[in-house]
Amino acid sequence: MNIYFACSITGGREFERVYQDLMAALLSDGHQIPTAHLADSNVLAMESVIAPREVYDRDVTWIQSADALIAEVSAPSHGVGFEIGFALQAEKPVLCLYQAGRKVSKMITGNPNPKLSIKEYKDSEEAVLFAREFILKLHSGSEVL
Asked: What burial class does residue 99 get, using C-beta atoms within 10 Å of its C-beta: 0-12 exposed, 13-18 middle, 19+ buried?
């Protein structure tokens, strides 16, 4: 499955370990994730050399070609919010994961779109479990929620 992974880059890297665990698990499962590099500790340096318009064009193309979007939303991010909205507008299934106890925008938690799933996790292992369950439901054609 082709999955677009979204996470905070400039809004804070507090959950980087979760990003890395998610990417390691999903890549080991054989999924294609063009944004897997976002979990890398050096992502700020890697992305800083790319012009904003190039990033926009690249990421919009990746979302359009993705089968689904998985976003870690514990750290607020304008970019991630935009990507979630863009994916939903393109009728892509979206999973938003966030650490238990974190406040998440009501624009996400209050969104009634049936393509949107939101899961609160307690640790990286549970985040990976929720991501795998989401993908399994997509493969089986089940309703995702």
From this structure: buried
Hey, CA dihedral for 139, 140, 141, 143, is it positive or negative?
A: negative
Distance between CA atoms of residues 128 and 123, nearest Å? 9
* Ordered structural domains, the chain, with CATH: 3-139 (3.40.50.450)
HSE-CB for 119 with a 13 A CA cutoff: 23
Q: What per-residue confidence (pLDDT) applies to 143?
A: 53
Task: Give the tens place of pLDDT for each residue, 56-81.
Answer: 999 999 999 999 999 999 999 999 99
Cβ–Cβ < 8 Å for 8, 76: yes
